[in-house]
Hints:
Elements: H1 6-11, H2 13-30, H3 39-58, H4 60-77
Signal peptide: 1-33
Keywords: Signal
Protein name: Secreted protein
Amino acid sequence: MLGFGLKVYLSCLYNALHCYLTFLGLAEVCCHAVEDLPFGVQIVFQNGRVLRLITLFHQWINFRVVLETICTSFRGLCY
């Protein structure tokens, strides 16, 4: 984000969504100690979790390749 600048970074929809989800997650962590959150705030946090899962599943193929490569490398270290 610092390399491109905020305007260029947020011009890509995926980066803007990722930035939104990151700040939403940070806000959720900060509000975790509050027991009586309004229902609307809880719904926003829940939708943020669902969107995070959707973005993770969208990149599942790339994630699976990286995970298989890491597992193969660890198996190679045992020999």
